[in-house]
């Protein structure tokens, strides 16, 4: 018996569990593929500054397709949109495995990820509602972070063993995600019948962007999540260069272990947010955002593995507590105004614009020869100050 929208708001419904499973496999593939592709680039002697450029082409796909993917997510059953998007990721991973330029293959994965994101978050608001939506986001983030944890570590370990084999396993995992999507409850399209003309779609997207930006709560959420994910992806690449400099370790696996500690921390932070924060008390998450930057600056000074693990775990805890309530707030308010798919597409534009900016600055800093420890300290301090400014701005408004 199929579930219609909100007829079963349980966090453990068949539809919710299928979404969480599909998300785990898709995110596992994303993270394993990143480290497998970085190992391939290392083996083929690409320059250090080109590593963040790999992520920039991925992010560029998000920005390019942002005006369209929200409408796609709202015009079709979101489970089927997720299946199609994972199919694109499968094609991208397989192409890298068969010798296509890694930047081209990873761009295809980015296109799939751009289409996938509005559907995966938008479907949560169709399967549950109200304060349970914060808990559903906690489940989604926990699944995602568990996938980051296992995918990153698996990608690094397999890349040390055999680069091509690691790429092939990533393709198989994406195939598993496609199969898992078949078991997601088929819900009716949220906003069928919209125009597919280019001008109408772009006008609709920018209208949704303006609507969300005018609203105080959604504007606050958009800025906060964009800053968080821009910082998060930059930290990931910072670790790849920081480990050999600060710790003297040159393998592919150690940066993935350190990334995994952030993932573990985010799971804990997301769980705490689900218990302590509601849609009416979102501002409680702001001190955690400030502490992310403070701890990143302290982390950059470390020269031993054990304190590095502990500090990255703490960064993850603060990160999970910070971002989960902001995500839930945007989904709930977006569903009431422009549609959940459009709201997430607008969020993706902001987040990936922030990623592109921060990765670009990071790549320029590396190319300019700034020591990686100095980059880490500056990055942490600037992030903490930016969250302080956001908090003051939000309170004044």
TrEMBL record:
HAMAP family the record matches: MFS_LplT
Main subcellular location of this protein, as a coarse class: membrane
Gene: lplT
Protein location: Cell membrane
Transmembrane segments: 16-41, 53-73, 93-117, 138-158, 164-184, 196-214, 226-250, 257-275, 281-301, 308-330, 368-393
Record protein name field: Lysophospholipid transporter LplT
One Pfam family here: MFS_1
Any one of the GO CC terms: plasma membrane
Keywords: Cell inner membrane, Cell membrane, Lipid transport, Membrane, Transmembrane, Transmembrane helix, Transport
Domain of life: Bacteria
Gene3D superfamilies: MFS general substrate transporter like domains (1.20.1250.20)
InterPro entries on file: LysoPLipid__transptr_LplT, MFS, MFS_trans_sf
